[in-house]
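check these tokens.
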Amino acid sequence: MNTAGTNPGDVQKEESMLLQKAMINANYDALSTAHEDGNKISSTFVPGNLNELLMCFDFVRNLPEINALQAGMRKKSGAYIMEAERSGHSEDVCTYVKTDLGMMSKGQVGPNGKPLPTPDVLLLSYTGCFTFMKWFELVRDEYGCETAMLHVPYQADGKITDNMRQFVVMQLKEHVIPTLERVSGIKFDIDRLREYLGESAKAEDNLVWVLQSAKNKPSPIDAYFGAIYYCGPIFSAFRGSKETTAYYKALRREVEDRIEKGLGPVTPEGLLDEERIRLVVEGPPNWTHFRDFWKMFYDEGVVVVASSYTKVGGVYDFGFRHDPEHPLETLADYCLGCYTNHSLPSRVDMLCNYMDEYEADGFLVNSIKSCNSFSAGQLLMLREIEERTGKPAGFIETDLVDPRYFSPANVKNRLESYFQMIEQKRLRPEDRSAA
């Protein structure tokens, strides 16, 4: 499958990706000099993060997951993981955790090559992953910094009840906000929070439009590999800022232009010139071989039109928006509604919906060896989705940032066999017999 690229070694990037890169670099620079500049640092996670609330206290925001995946893409995570394992951490522990702990022991050097200062507060808005809590316990023990723990009930019955919402709001009022006030020295201003939430809602509208543009044929985006970049600002340290609102306006304009011209998604080697297979994908990507992994898809004309990973920081396409009229309640609903806080039946319903609405040809699971919050139950989900949709399902296994668990030849062989199976199933019975 040919793409309209330039030199094979040149990574083709859209303007929005360059804008995002500048935002990320600026944030890492701000982290590196935060204490010198008289600022405080918060560390938190992607799922259910309370970025708008942290902005109310002028924290410079650090996200250890983002640091770990950046280390993976820069081929540095393997050494960090080995360092953590030498310190006694099991091979089965989440490799994000081991990368972060290894980075700490090696001087906590960020992607910009500068040391990241010690955080002043850890904010754990727990959503669906017990490992997060143990991770921050280890970080707290290492740095001795304050920790705000937000207990978020699991959506066992597939819905958010008022009792669940009020339980989270109570913790925000009685524990989280007072802790952030004490550490930052800044009094909480609910009108400031409302302003940030209003900006979030604008950006979320445009992100949903971009993700749902994959219903077009050809899809103008790849909703897994490409959409990881699209979701970056909203899922991390930037949601709620005017800068992020402007980024999503620019991104939408780019995608609108591709739709108008009938173009496919942008890949690292240029535009995809022919869409042959449409997939829905469950699970995170592999970061250590990200470009090679993506190439296995676009070389075969395979486009991902919807994915669960792009919902890990918010399931916006099912209606949720941050609501400035109900600021604390909307923060609670956001924490409660993230993808890995949904029950398995709810996740199956969501993925079946994607299979139908996006007219996918197949469903693929990329199971992550060290990520229990995603991997638990995936084979059951696969069988259920295959049965309900009648579309072929495939299964591969890699890891987040451990290069030892990405076998290019094995993954490529399994994917090629799966793609062939999809094409065979799409043929009419008489065509299959002739083939």
